[in-house]
Design a protein that fits this description.
Helix content is 36%, strand content 28%. Helix 3 packs antiparallel against helix 4. It is an alpha+beta fold. A hairpin with a 5-residue loop joins strand 22 and strand 23. The strands form 8 sheets. Strands 14-18-19-26-23-22-20-21 form an 8-stranded mixed beta sheet. Strands 3, 4, 5, 10 and 11 form a 5-stranded antiparallel beta sheet that branches.
Length: 587
C-alpha cells in the first residue's frame, strides 16, 4: 500500500501502520463529503483511532438523522470513485493562519495557537477539500476500499463542557470488504450481547434518572452478584486474606496525606461534617492503611493480607457513563498486602497466580502489561527503580510475556495490568497489581524486625475483578446472559404443563428450594412451548424441568437444558445430584 508523507515522499506503508493510514484518510474523505452536503460545516479534530475514525464538526443548528448519515456515506463513495489525488503542502504559520481565515475554519485556526513556534504546519488536499494535517495518507481516494459510518454522538470542543457541543461522526475502515463485513458481523453480535439490553431482559439491574451513573441491582442481579462475592470469599480465605471494611466517608486530611487529593480531587465527591471537609472515598487503600496502623506489628506477622469489598464513588462526566462499564459508584474487590522487601517477589507471584486462576475459571485468556512511572508521581528515583525491578522479576519468574506501557503507572508506584479477552475477542483491563513504597512512607507505617528495630513495610494494592459491577457487565456480554450454572441468577425453572400437574410441580419446586438451588415455578396458563422459549431466550436459565401428566404419575422430571431442544427423563434425585455437582464444582 503506497502512502504519501507531508513532505511529498511516496513510500510503501509499514504493515502495522496500514489501518491507521486507511482510517485517517477515511476521516478526510468523510469531512469532504460533509462539506459538500453542508457547506457551512466547520471542522475541529478528525483522527484515526484504534476502533476506527471520527470527525468532530460544528453544523450550527443542523441535527443529523440516520438517513443523513447514509447520504454522507454515499457521498464518500462518490469521492472515492472520483479517484482524487491526495497532495500535501507546507505553509508558514502566517500563511496557514491566513488560509484558515479565508476558509472560515475557526477551530483549526484556534488549534494553530497550540502548536510550538517551530512547528511545521502541513496540509493535505484532495479536490476542493483542504485539511491541516501531519499525515501520512493514501495517495488517491480510490485506494480507500471498505468503510462505513457507524454512529453520531455529541462531543465538547477540546473535551471541555464549557465549550460548544459539536457533532462527532464515527466510522470504520478496513483494507477490504471481507474484513469490514467480519467487523460488522462482530458488531451486530456485540449489540445482541449488550449487557444493558440483557440486564433489562433478565431483570438484573437498572438505572434511574434520580441517580445517573448509580446502578440499582434487582433481586436476580443480587443473586449473581452474591455468587461472585461468595467465590471471592472462598479464594481469599484459602489464600490467607483477612477481610476488613472501612468507612465510606473520611476526612480530607487523610486524602491529602495519601496523595489522592492532589492527584484525584476532580474525581472525588466531598461534603462538610462538623465544619470540616470530608471526602467520599474513591478507593479503599487509605482505609486499609489505617487498619494496618491501628496497632504495632512484628516481622513475624508479615505479610499481612487485608481484603475489602469496598463501595467507592468517583465523579464521571455524565456523557461518559455507560451501563455497568462506566459508573459513579462500584464495589472494588480490593486487597492491600503489607510485607517486608524480601517478600515482594513471592507475594506478587502469589497474586499473579490468584488472578490467573480467576480468569481461567471464567474462560478468559489474558495478556499482561507493565506500567511505569508517570510524570505526576510521588517518591524517589531509587524507590521507583526498585519497585519496577521487583515487578519485572516476578513476571519473569512466572515466564509471563508482557508489554511495557511507559508512564502509565499509578502516582505512587508501578503496576501490572491484566487485559482479559472475551468471547468476541474484545479486551478489558480488569486485574491490577500495584507496588507502593510511597503510602507506607506518607503514613509512617512500621513493623519491628528480628533485631527489635523499626522498619517500613512495602505495600501492594491489587484487584482481581476490578469493579464487581463492571465485571458483571463483562461476564454478561461474554456469556450473552447464559451464565454457567453456579452463577446463573435462576438455575432451574420448573414449568407446569397444566393445572392438573401443578401440585407435583410445586412439590418439585419446593424440594429444589430446600436444597439451596435458585429456582422459579412457572404456573401460568400458557402453552408449554411459549414458556420454554421465554425461559431459554429471555431468562436464559441453564435447566428447565417440564412437568406433565407422565412426570406427575411417575414422580420424574423431564430435563431440558438451554442449549438443545432435547429432553431427558430422570428421577428428581438424579437431577438434584447432577445440578448440585455442577454448582459445587462451579461448572
Amino acid at each position: 500500500m503506497k502512502i504519501i508523507e507531508r513532505d511529498g515522499t511516496v513510500k510503501e506503508c509499514e504493515p502495522e501502520q496500514e489501518l491507521h493510514v486507511l482510517r485517517h484518510t477515511a476521516a478526510h474523505v468523510m469531512a469532504q463529503a460533509i462539506k459538500r452536503l453542508y457547506p457551512e460545516a466547520d471542522f475541529a479534530f478528525g483522527p484515526a483511532t484504534e476502533r476506527g475514525f471520527y470527525y468532530d464538526v460544528d453544523l450550527g443548528d443542523t441535527k443529523l438523522t440516520d438517513e443523513d448519515l447514509l447520504k454522507i456515506e454515499d457521498e464518500m463513495r462518490r469521492i472515492v470513485k472520483e479517484n482524487l489525488p491526495i497532495k500535501p503542502f507546507i505553509l508558514s504559520r502566517e500563511e496557514a493562519a491566513e488560509l484558515l481565515k479565508e476558509r472560515n475554519e475557526k477551530y483549526k485556526l484556534e488549534h494553530i495557537d497550540d502548536l510550538p513556534e517551530d512547528a511545521v504546519i502541513s496540509f493535505y488536499q484532495q479536490g476542493e477539500y483542504i485539511d491541516m494535517c501531519v499525515g501520512p495518507h493514501l495517495c488517491y481516494t480510490k485506494a480507500l476500499k471498505a468503510f462505513k459510518i457507524t454512529q453520531q454522538s455529541g462531543a465538547y470542543w477540546r473535551g471541555d463542557k464549557n465549550n460548544r457541543m459539536l457533532t462527532r461522526i464515527n466510522g470504520i475502515a478496513f483494507k477490504n470488504q471481507a474484513e469490514l463485513e467480519e467487523y460488522l458481523k462482530l458488531r451486530e453480535e456485540a449489540e445482541r450481547r449488550d449487557h444493558r439490553k440483557i440486564g433489562k431482559e433478565m431483570e438484573l439491574f437498572m438505572f434511574s434518572d434520580e441517580g445517573p451513573g448509580f446502578p440499582f441491582f434487582l433481586p436476580k442481579g443480587m443473586e449473581l452478584k452474591n455468587a461472585l462475592i461468595e467465590y471471592w470469599h472462598e479464594i481469599h480465605n484459602r489464600s490467607g486474606y483477612s477481610e476488613v471494611s472501612t468507612p465510606m466517608i473520611m476526612s480530607r486530611s487523610l486524602w491529602e496525606t495519601s496523595g489522592h487529593w492532589e492527584h484525584y480531587k476532580d474525581n472525588m465527591y466531598t461534603t462538610r461534617i462538623d465544619s470540616e471537609d470530608y471526602c467520599v472515598k474513591p478507593m479503599n487503600c487509605p482505609g486499609g492503611v489505617l487498619v494496618y496502623k491501628s496497632r504495632p506489628h512484628s516481622y513475624r506477622e508479615l505479610p499481612i493480607r487485608l481484603g475489602e469489598l469496598g463501595l467507592v464513588h468517583r465523579h464521571e462526566m455524565r456523557g461518559a457513563l455507560h451501563g455497568l462499564f462506566r459508573v459513579r459508584c462500584f464495589t472494588q474487590d480490593d486487597a492491600h498486602i503489607f510485607m517486608k522487601k524480601e517478600q515482594i517477589k513471592d507475594e506478587i507471584v502469589s497474586v499473579i497466580d490468584l488472578i490467573s486462576e480467576v480468569y481461567t475459571k471464567f474462560g478468559f485468556k489474558y495478556t499482561v502489561e507493565l506500567s511505569t512511572r508517570p510524570d505526576d508521581s510521588m517518591g524517589s528515583d531509587e524507590d521507583w527503580e526498585n519497585a519496577t525491578n521487583a515487578l519485572i522479576t516476578a513476571l519473569e519468574s512466572k515466564g509471563l510475556p508482557y508489554e511495557v506501557n511507559e508512564g502509565d503507572g499509578a502516582f505512587y508506584g508501578p503496576k501490572i495490568d491484566f487485559h482479559l479477552e472475551d468471547s468476541l475477542g474484545r479486551t478489558w483491563q480488569c486485574g491490577t497489581i500495584q507496588l507502593d513504597f510511597q503510602m507506607p512512607l506518607n503514613f509512617q507505617l512500621e513493623y519491628i524486625d528480628e533485631n527489635g528495630s523499626k522498619q517500613r513495610p512495602v505495600m501492594i494494592h491489587r484487584v482481581c475483578f476490578g469493579s464487581i459491577e463492571r465485571f458483571i457487565g463483562i461476564l454478561t456480554e461474554h456469556y450473552a446472559g447464559k451464565f454457567p450454572v453456579w452463577l446463573a441468577p435462576v438455575q432451574v425453572k420448573v414449568l407446569s404443563v397444566s393445572d392438573k400437574n401443578l401440585e407435583y410441580a410445586e412439590k418439585v419446586y419446593q424440594k429444589l428450594s430446600e436444597l439451596g438451588i435458585r429456582c422459579e415455578l412457572d404456573s401460568r396458563n400458557e402453552k408449554i412451548g411459549y414458556m420454554i422459549r421465554e425461559a431459554r431466550q429471555i431468562d436464559r436459565v441453564p435447566y428447565m424441568l417440564i412437568i406433565g401428566g407422565r412426570e406427575a404419575e411417575n414422580e420424574t422430571v423431564s430435563v431440558r437444558d438451554r442449549a438443545t431442544d432435547q429432553t431427558e427423563s430422570m428421577t428428581f434425585q438424579e437431577f438434584a445430584e447432577r445440578i448440585q455437582y455442577e454448582i459445587t464444582k462451579r461448572l
